[in-house]
Q: What sequence folds into this?
């Protein structure tokens, strides 16, 4: 504050009573207007009042700040609350809740919580496990963050060979989605899904994507091993949500890659991990059983290990159409070469000869050969690809595969 040299502070006034002094000064002013002391005192008074108001405001602000920080500190000290699902509610408004680890508890529900029903997500106190509040877990499908959802662009034309497999997939998945009335008229139920099995890289995912494209269906891709490893304690719920999402976005194809990770026959060791996989698998079976063959949701499972698959998943009414997708024969390999070289600038390349050279190669490996051949050309600063580039590429891919196999054996 800028100090006013003319201000006379009250302590400096040599009067026993301030009011009397003010009065006498005011009289003086009315008598002779030459004395300015009362004015100065009023000014002083005003300034002091302003200062007081400012200090009071500051104090209120600081108090509010302190309260906020204090509240935050108290909140940070509180133990976190658990998230659980309501299994059932009894007539006394108490609930059976299920924790993510699968354990169930009979809990008291806060009186303020109305309309709680089975299936709701709730938060519960860690110690007492009593239900404190409801949380909105449903509706906006959290599951969308964890699965791949797309409208694939792959076409039947992008698949080399696999003529028989394509026909089967068309019959089991495409036809019921496109012409359900045919099935109704004839009076048969199409399968709810199929199981594609065979070695890695043979086009199982490609087949599933192509049928999603041809039926303009939403494609939801889930990887079985991720379902049980990444989302520990959440697998069963995720399966439930995936099917709910599929119904909401129908027509939908749910593609479960590595389904053996969920549906493998296993020794019942009774470990918690074991129980978790089992719960997820049971939920998957329940979901598949819960819809009809003519609903516009279809399930395509894929595995490289049909030998270890639990028979429950392929029982009638589930994924009961098994389609083997094996390594391509020579004609298949030629077709795959054709698919992957359509956009390549080839010079005197004999694809037929190449198809003979890649015995035992999968579709994925043939694609890798085409890419590598392109690289050989680019390294030599050429704009076209030759037979020799392909031959070198085949050796490279073969060598890398052998190396990988060797590392797998060692490691
Ligand atoms: P995995 O069992 O490892 O999941 P997969 O059988 O699902 O393998 P895909 O993912 O479909 O194999 O194949 C990988 C890639 O290999 C495809 O994206 C495609 O580029 C190529 N490919 C595989 N098979 C074929 C095929 N028959 N025709 C054309 N391309 C193919």
A:
């Amino acid at each position: 504050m800028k100090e006013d040299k003319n201000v006379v502070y009250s302590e400096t006034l040599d009067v026993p009573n301030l009011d009397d002094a003010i009065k006498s000064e005011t009289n003086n002013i009315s008598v002779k207007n030459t004395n300015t002391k009362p004015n100065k005192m009023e000014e002083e008074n005003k300034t002091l009042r302003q200062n007081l108001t400012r200090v009071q405001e500051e104090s209120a602000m600081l108090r509010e700040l302190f309260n906020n920080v204090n509240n935050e500190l108290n909140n940070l000290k509180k133990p976190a609350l658990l998230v659980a699902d309501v299994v059932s509610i009894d007539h006394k408004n108490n609930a059976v809740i299920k924790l993510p680890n699968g354990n169930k508890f009979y809990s008291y529900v806060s009186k303020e919580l109305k309309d709680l029903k089975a299936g709701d997500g709730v938060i519960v106190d860690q110690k007492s496990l009593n239900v404190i509040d409801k949380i909105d877990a449903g509706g906006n499908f959290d599951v969308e963050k964890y699965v791949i959802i797309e409208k694939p662009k792959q076409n039947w034309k992008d698949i080399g060979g696999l003529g028989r497999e394509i026909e089967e997939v068309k019959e089991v998945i495409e036809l019921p989605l496109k012409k359900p009335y045919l099935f109704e008229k004839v009076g048969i139920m199409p399968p709810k899904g199929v199981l594609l099995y065979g070695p890695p890289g043979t086009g199982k995912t490609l087949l599933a994507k192509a049928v999603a494209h041809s039926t303009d269906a939403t494609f939801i891709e889930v990887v079985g091993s991720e379902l049980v490893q990444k989302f520990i304690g959440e697998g069963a719920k995720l399966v439930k949500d995936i099917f709910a999402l599929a119904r909401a976005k129908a027509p939908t194809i749910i593609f479960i890659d590595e389904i053996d990770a969920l549906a493998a026959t296993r020794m019942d060791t009774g470990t918690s991990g074991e129980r978790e996989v089992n719960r997820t698998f049971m939920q998957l079976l329940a979901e598949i059983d819960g819809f009809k063959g003519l609903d516009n949701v279809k399930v395509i499972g894929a595995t490289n290990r049909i030998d270890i698959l639990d028979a429950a998943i392929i029982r009638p009414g589930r994924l009961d159409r098994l389609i083997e997708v094996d390594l391509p024969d020579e004609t298949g390999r030629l077709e795959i070469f054709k698919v992957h070289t359509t956009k390549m600038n080839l010079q005197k390349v004999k694809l037929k000869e190449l198809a003979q050279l890649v015995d035992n190669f999968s579709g994925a490996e043939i694609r890798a050969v085409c890419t590598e051949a392109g690289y050989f050309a680019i390294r030599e600063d050429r704009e076209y690809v030759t037979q020799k580039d392909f031959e070198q590429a085949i050796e490279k891919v073969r060598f890398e595969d052998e190396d990988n196999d060797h590392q797998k054996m060692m490691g």
